[in-house]
Amino acid sequence: MKIKLVFEAKSPIFLPAGYFSSIQGLIYNMLDRLSADWLHSEGFQHKNRFFKLFVFSEINEKGKFVKNKGFYFPERISFYLASPIHWIIGQIAKNGIMAESYKLADNDVKLIEISTYPQEKIENKKVSIKTLSPIEVHSTLKKPDGSSKTYYYNPREQEFSALIEKNIKKKWEILNKKECKLSLKITPANVKHLKERTIIVKDSVIKGWKGRFILEGDKELIQLAFETGLGSHNSLGFGMIEPITPRRKEG
After folding, report:
1. CATH number for position 107
2. In terms of domains, do 55 and 136 share one?
3. Cα–Cα distance for residue pair 134/116, rounded to 1 Å
4. Do 16 and 82 sit in the same domain of this protein?
5. What pLDDT score was predicted for residue 248?
6. pTM (two decimals)
7. In a 3-state reduction of DSSP, which class is residue 30?
8. Which of 52, 110, 136, 148 is the most exposed place for a label (fewest CB within 10 A)?
9. Are 53 and 228 in contact (CB under 8 A)?
10. Residues 224, 84: contact at Cβ < 8 Å?
């Protein structure tokens, strides 16, 4: 399920450059306390890994960036949130309507509108998509001196698609409680139009990619990608996508 949340403040909203963690904190604060504590500290387990199974977009409204400070947004902002877990969406909707205000970084904001969107209907095994937040996949590599290094893959590398497929299959297995034998492949629609984004979140530098891609594979995995996001760090606001609707010919 996908929803759009619209918040309003009494003055322009200032957020740090790495505001993804501020949005994440807002989402956890909108959940019931016990649910938020469990989801934040544990989550849905797949072998030795844990997943939150929700994803959110960047803020839809354009902010003015001030170097070494952050973004100044208008008094009203919005972002998308998606999850295949109904109680996550349900609690956010219920609590958001009842609460007088929430903290978003240092701003007092009030939820003024919630819009729900129907589940994406996947009719083909090949779908054109665009990113609503950067897609990120990485590996932790060992250096000769024994220390570790995080390597972020770009869409030109085969590992980019392979790791995205591996990740979405784990999410499918959590929800279906059996081995996933489905497949998914992602390729850039146009490599030249891709944009690399470097974002500092919680003192960590994360690199992702924005642009248009082609998803090919089983419809179930394509469907799940819209609800959980692609790649890693979805609960930090990475990997949210939406389908590109073909333009209708006039006349």
Report:
1. 3.30.70.1890
2. no
3. 23
4. yes
5. 53
6. 0.93
7. helix
8. 148
9. yes
10. yes
